[in-house]
Amino acid sequence: MPCLSIDGRKVDFQVGQTILEAATAAGIYIPHLCWHPKLPPYGSCKLCTVQVNGRLGSACTFPAAEGQEVISNSEEIRQMRLRLTQMLFVEGNHFCPSCEQSGQCELQALGYYLGMTTAHFPHFFPERALDASHPEVLLDHDRCIFCALCVRASQAEGKNVFALAGRGIHTHLVVDSPSGKLGDSALSGSDWAARVCPVGALVLKAQAFRTPIGQRRYDRASIAEVSLAHEAPLVRKKHES
Ligand code: SF4
Ligand code: FES
Description:
By secondary structure, the chain is α+β, with helices and mostly antiparallel strands. It contains 6 helices and 10 strands; from the N terminus they run ββαβββααββαβββαα.
């Protein structure tokens, strides 16, 4: 098998894999927010940035190649990922102590993983709406990080309920329905698109605060452990078939 190195460790990979897939299959965690092993890569969050033969690139879109020397675990890259995470926090309204996804949220867990203790940047406190029109699913635009996971999951399900519109600070999630509200869209609470959100922007109703503090997903394990446990088998299976 072809081979590359990640932080000095030899990693075998299959032709066609990205660096992130090769790392994940080998049990090496590279932080990421907009990637899911069952969806096409999107490359927006930049949390997965690594150095490849000395130049920066997104591991989720960068094809693995023989002899590559990849650096992911350096202090410089940790600092860059920390700043990106802090930017995500200040661009939206993420009030973790009162959020029902606290302890189950990938953004919050990544903040802990990267040693985040302050927001570093001034908060934008944007004014964003809450869409509670759907009987089963709540859409809280305050918490959206524009990862497009719901967009791609809904596309994969053949419904295309979601899309991202606007650019830069004006980016926002839109819903395909006559009113633009979730309540008259084709979304069902059992859809993957309704359950794939890594933060608390799309959540199922009547499920909040059910898991006691101490037993929530990221109380029990770090985001690195949780990600590898879920994603490594999916990547291996994808490239077996
Ligand atoms: Fe990502 Fe969730 Fe926003 Fe969809 S609603 S773009 S899954 S953060
Ligand atoms: Fe690679 Fe988001 S996971 S850019």
